[in-house]
């Protein structure tokens, strides 16, 4: 939590002014019981009405000053807390965007969303309360005890006893509830994960008639969250009644012993009233402190979870002090992509996803990558633009280790189409410009022609201005895939990577797409990951993967003669004869 306070640095002034004005308010509040004692002991006792009016006016004046100080403190505290929350949210979002795929996979999307929203809100509320109360409440408690001491030394010992007992109670409750609040946030992660999976997979759930099972599972997650919240609430709820009980018992004791002292002539009636007021002030201050502690405990638990994300190392990082781009390499004799004895293992996996892969790809080649499910095709191409970092060996692009590239420069080399077609809410034109900000309409239309998307875009009522709904829900699977391919083509990158990005296309459209890629992207190195032999049989070379091993890398005809795995794939698809294919 302390490390997160660096995001409050921009609001240092507000963070100082808020508590200071709260101290001023507390000072005026501590003076009021003495004024009341004067009214009783002097004004009422002597029937001195002018003195009563004067003291009453003074009390009103002190109250108005306290109100003004309180409003000022509230304003600056709220401004600092809101600014802190905004800065924290921005920096956390920026950090998450810099994490590698592996780090995001390990943390989980639902967990990151919870920490971006609920956890930051908890920390922001905690900062707001701390700025307003962390000086005021202890100052009131200590000030009231000191003022009581100036009035009567022995009775002030009662104040110290009550403060000591309440401090022990508060400490005990904090020690119990901090782990529970962490558990609450963890259970909230599970609920959000369940909700997210159900909402994103609602069509599958209904198709399989699994609604009742999913409802039961969600109810169990929700009930688990409720039980932990109730337990935490019950323990935290002990603070207020215990505080009231102890303070009210102390007030009774003050009245009892104060009355005895009045009869003995040691104390005046006004001083007893002042002692009772100071005890009441301690009550209110400790109640506020109890609420502060509850909020602060939640903030501590949430702050620790947020800090965990900040401390999550990204395997994809810029080299320290490396900001300048590497010089462009145009030489044809230098491989555009090269793997040197590369192996890779996911953090949660026991074995390697790829093992000892070595190959080179020349500039302008079209490379097909094929293999069974889980053979490592997607993992391999994710290592090239440094989405993941190889656990062994070296990946080179244009003769340079990908680790040496600034991320921005490395990204500019690639046009990448993922397996899952992702479109964002906005016009077709806006989605295309995600690939290239300054793309002209002619460039966009050319990319749409290459991806075989021009026909259906032209038929839309508003053409390039047609609104795409979130996730492309108003488009078919094939249309989404073609638009994502167009978005990658419009970048005009040196290397175009298609990760099984035409699986939803019919064979005729897919054939036209492959022909357009070969004919209109001359000079571009194209890597095509696919399950269809027909898509890559005309590629310059084809890489065959099996269980993370490269078992073949050659032309279609040679692989048919030398690679049993490739031959089996072709036979299973009816593409084992030259010139045939599904």
From TrEMBL:
Q: Which UniProt keywords apply?
A: ATP-binding, Cell membrane, Membrane, Nucleotide-binding, Transmembrane, Transmembrane helix, Transport
Q: Where's the ABC transmembrane type-1 domain?
A: 16-298
TM region(s), chain numbering: 52-73, 133-151, 157-181, 237-258, 278-297
Q: Which domain of life is it from?
A: Bacteria
Q: Which SMART domains match?
A: AAA
Q: Which CDD domains match?
A: ABC_6TM_Tm287_like (cd18548)
Q: Where in the cell is it found?
A: Cell membrane
Q: Which SUPFAM superfamilies match?
A: ABC transporter transmembrane region, P-loop containing nucleoside triphosphate hydrolases
Q: Identify the residues that the record assigns to the ABC transporter domain, covering every copy.
A: 337-572
- Membrane topology annotation: Multi-pass membrane protein
Alphabetically, the GO molecular function entries are: ABC-type oligopeptide transporter activity; ATP binding; ATP hydrolysis activity
Instruction: Quote a single Gene Ontology cellular component term.
Output: plasma membrane
User: PANTHER family, from UniProt?
Assistant: ATP-BINDING CASSETTE SUB-FAMILY B MEMBER 10, MITOCHONDRIAL, ATP-DEPENDENT PERMEASE MDL1, MITOCHONDRIAL
Protein name per UniProt: ABC transporter ATP-binding protein
Give the originating organism: Candidatus Dojkabacteria bacterium
